[in-house]
Amino acid sequence: MNNLVFINISRFVGLVLLQVIVCNNINFLGYINPNIYVLFILLYPVANNRLLFIFLSFLLGLSVDMFLDSGGTHAAASVTIAYIRPLFLKFSFGAVYEYHAVKFSKTDLTQRLIYFLILIFIHHFILFCLVVFDQNELLLIFKHTFYSSMFTLLLCLLLSSLFSNKET
Amino acid sequence: MQQLFNFFIRNKTFVLFLLLLSCALSFTIRSHEYHRSKFIHSSNQITGSIYGAFHGITQYINLKKENKLLLDENSQLKTLVFNRENLAKVDSLLESTYNLLPSLVYKNSFAVPNNYLTLNKGRNDHIKDEDGVITSKGIVGIIDKTSKNYSRVLSVLNTNSRINVKLKKTNHFGILSWDGKSPEITQLKDVQDLVKIAIGDTVVTSGYSSTFPANIPVGSIKSYRLNDTEDLYIIDIKLFNDMTNLEHVYIVKNTDINELKALNISDE
Questions:
Q1: ipTM of the complex, rounded to two decimals
Q2: pTM across the whole model
Q3: A58:B44 CB<8 A
Q4: Among A69, A130, A147, which would you mutate to test the B interface (most chain B Cβ atoms within 10 Å of its Cβ)?
């Protein structure tokens, strides 16, 4: 139990620092930055206190916002995907979710890919809608969302397989 | 009443979600409208010190380039000093005196519509809101938030930024703003269409606001077009400064600013 809490706290701090110090300076092609901190929300234990989880993801988004002067955009996007996460867990992992038996290190690659992809895409879409608060620039929003999601998805898959497959 | 409580208790996760979402949205909307939340900005003590710690490591990468820039700037300034010794002292048009404070950029951004920089000087170094920030090549922005040791700059690459500038050749002035598209091009508005302008003309600060001294270089004209009502120009200015690559900046402190402000208030 303590081990789990310790792991999650260190994930929280580590991902926020990684995000603001490394990932936000990448500016690939001038504007694409991965948002690696969503990995915390994606890999949080399935059996959890939902209230605490939503609150923690709010804090996560807010910490990133504090460093980036972006108002509450990351917090809003993080809270949204934390709220809808159970829906997509059920969608991509099926019946296994019902018994709270999903261990991310033991899941299929395709299922994990779909789950990551949908949540990351929704998160980035909300994020860029709030950053570019202008409906005339819808094309710009979609462009940013698409490229950033691809970059974030790549990094999340890499990092999650680096740190989670200790059993095999 | 009881029904209401039961409703809240049954849907507690949804209610919490709505509450936090509205908090986050309100922070965003406030920062779009110039009402800044006091704690959630990058120049408070915690965020500033973390940026400072990592800057101590990454500054070594840029040392060679920065040294070259500083040497170039020194030689420019020394040329000016040596030439001026031969001329009589020229009175400046403004009576106010400006002090410059060098500072390091801890954090920059240029890809989002509202960009800010974080500097390592704050209230302890007598920096106030609305001090200007420049480099040897051009302007950077205006300080909008300070904490004890750090401050935040409203970059010229920010849709809320308005800086008073003038055409160097003819002294016609206008307002410099940014449309959010390219980090190299800003827009100059409110110049009458009777003015003769040419591509490549220099634009400098006008000195009409007490933030920047006059004749600080800003950029050069890249293109221009008439606005919708066909009586004013919208001019695209290519900035002299490379806003993606700032390390050393100077904070401009106007020592007469209290006097100027009091004068303006008594006029209105």
A1: 0.78
A2: 0.80
A3: no
A4: A69
